[in-house]
Amino acid sequence: MSEPSTPGGIMADPARRPSPRAKLLWAVSSALSWVIPVVGVAVWMAFDTNRRALQGVVLGIVLAAAVFSIVVIPLWRYAVHRWEITDEAVYTRTGWLTQESRVAPITRVQTVDTYRGPLERLLGLATVTVTTASSAGAVHISALALEDAQTTVTQLTAIAARHRGDAT
Q1: Quick check: is 39 in a domain?
Q2: Residues 168, 166: Cα–Cα separation, whole Å
Q3: For a tag site, which of 62, 68, 114, 136 has the least CB within 10 Å?
Q4: Which residue, 51, 77, 103, sits at the end of a domain?
Q5: pLDDT digits (tens, 9 = 90+) for 13-38
């Protein structure tokens, strides 16, 4: 694989994206988080008929925020999220409003794990977690197609085995 850096040593954008199904995963996860607020406003509207103007404003705000969260944010996250693995490091970029780029040297890799929550299993996705000897914590490569996650774990394990360090 080619080195993902530009002249001068500044890291370029990692090349790989999550699965296109990541957008659906993030949208469904967000939609589930909006169930309680929407039901709360509906119950309030059902039992308190004296504040219709205020209820309409609150309902409008809740629905606008929900639509933004369910439609816009998953698309935005998908546009930002990237990852790449080379013989030297694991590179990730995540976020949407605030973005984080991480570089984890292969020599610092301690474990490589796969996680699949209920929605990820339903959509055939997985998250690969690369635990390193770093105070910044593990590097997560989320919303990969299951096949890509399995290939990534195999690839990382093989690369890490070639780098005989103590990962400390």
Answers
A1: yes
A2: 6
A3: 136
A4: 77
A5: 788 999 999 999 999 999 999 999 99
